[in-house]
Write a structure and sequence with these properties.
Length: 102
């Protein structure tokens, strides 16, 4: 269950919170079945102490910029790319007009 949904159920569910949670998570009512991913075994290399990869991953994840993480799966990045494409088209149009003889 998505964290905002769980928070809303907890805040507004009242005495029906447990039933609401069941309805939201039950495949009988249309929720997707829960899939568990197989656990991968990660072996630390001799030059890398155990736990360094995890610490680095957490540090990178924390500094990754919550703006992109909270943007709804890349919507902000998509808008940025569209803005850059429009800017590139405007610059190309301006350069083409300057080169054209009057």
């Amino acid at each position: 269950m998505a964290p905002p949904v769980a928070k809303a159920i907890k805040k507004h569910g009242g005495s029906d919170a447990s039933v609401l949670k069941q309805v939201v998570t039950s495949p009988t009512y249309g929720a997707p079945p829960r899939q568990t991913l197989p656990k991968l075994e990660h072996e630390a290399s001799p030059s890398q102490p155990r736990g360094v990869g995890t610490k680095l991953g957490k540090a990178l994840g924390a500094s990754a910029g919550s703006e992109f993480a909270d943007a709804g799966h890349g919507r902000l990045l998509g808008l940025l790319l569209i803005a850059l494409a429009i800017l590139a088209a405007a610059v190309a149009f301006r350069v083409a007009r300057r080169r054209r003889p009057a």
